[in-house]
Amino acid sequence: MISTVQTMAGAFLGLALAATTSSAQTKTTPVNPVIYKTEKVDGLDIFYREAGPANAPTILLLHGFPSSSHMYRDLINDLKDSYHVIAPDYPGFGNSSFPDRSQFRYTFDNLSAVIEKFIDAKGLKKFALYIQDYGAPVGLRIASRRPELISALIIQNGNAYTEGFGPYLAPFPPFWNARNAETEKPLRDFLTITGTKLQYLDGVENPENINPDAYNLDQAYLDRPGNVEVQLDLFFDYQNNPKQYPVWQNYFSTKQPATLIVWGKNDKFFTAAGAEAYKKHLKDIDFHLLNTGHFALEDYHTEIAAYIKDFLSKRKIK
Fold first, then answer.
1. How crowded is residue 207: how many other Cβ atoms within 10 Å of its Cβ?
2. Is 281 known to be catalytic?
3. CATH number of the domain at 36-314, out of 3.60.10.10, 3.40.50.1970, 3.30.70.20, 3.40.50.1820?
4. Where are the domains of the chain?
5. What is the DSSP string of the chain?
6. pTM score
7. Whole-number Å distance between alpha carbons of 93 and 78
8. Active-site pick, 63, 84, 294, 301
9. How do residues 64-122 score in pLDDT, each as one tens digit?
10. Can you tell me the distance from the alpha carbon of 227 to that of 196, in angstroms, rounded to the nearest whole number?
11. Are 52 and 66 in contact (CB under 8 A)?
12. How far apart are CA 250 and CA 254, in angstroms?
């Protein structure tokens, strides 16, 4: 009898250990984990987030101001089971190298050149390009130079038309006309926590849905010594982006990339008129205006992910 009990106890113990081991293995082996790495480009460490099957269609995510690849954290998790997603930080943003202004000229030409070299270093041959805010002048420079890379465009509050310039951009033209302490002052306000929160919360239907970690992290990066001057350099160089609009519009007209528009319609930086303007040159468009502001992914990432999946699957984007 004792022997039988001991045998049964041993069997139960073995099953319990096996279950514990299996559970531990499940917990330590996540499916499609997000990885965080850096790629060396021209001596700079370019940080990036990457997830999803390597043989799945690729989506390159280019972030806006004042954010980083962190703005795509939720969307990456939404898409990673079906797509290969990759999101880099520009020099001077997020976890990428932050070179001194004496060593790196902060212009949109230079940011796009670095990201283009990053694309080649990662061996990306074809991808859907997601652009928001600064992602538009960075990404559309690359798309118009190398259209063969682009399988589709996904555009969220990123301008390629002057119609999209909203009232919150009013301080920029005086600054472009004469850069001095007086014209800099209203732009410096955009670099404070008040300005950063404005970008995240203005136009949002339910501000309580916006995670404060996002704007507080952005502000922590903005507050790094020397970063105000770096961002003012980019603000000043932004005047060269509208000069490129005819080039990008010609790319739209001649190459006709399939395009998904997902736009926060209450954005007072880049308005819904800028979204509508894409219809002038693009024929194959899925168009969605969302009841939110500039950083639409903060409260609409689930809906945007569904739009992306539907858009890419219908067009059999590979």
1. 15
2. no
3. 3.40.50.1820
4. 1-30, 36-314
5. -HHHHHHHHHHHHHHHHHHHHHHHHHHHS-SS--EEEEEEETTEEEEEEEES-TTSPEEEEE--SS--GGGGHHHHHHHTTTSEEEEEPPTTSTTS----TTTS---HHHHHHHHHHHHHHTT--SEEEEEETTHHHHHHHHHHH-GGGEEEEEEES--SSGGGB-GGGTTHHHHHH--SHHHHHHHHHTTSHHHHHHHHHTT-S-GGGS-HHHHHHHHHHHTSTTHHHHHHHHHHHGGGSGGGHHHHHHHHHHH---EEEEEETT-SSB-HHHHHHGGGT-SSEEEEEESS-S-THHHHHHHHHHHHHHHHHHTT--
6. 0.90
7. 24
8. 294
9. 999 999 999 999 999 999 999 999 999 999 999 999 999 999 999 999 999 999 999 99
10. 14
11. no
12. 6
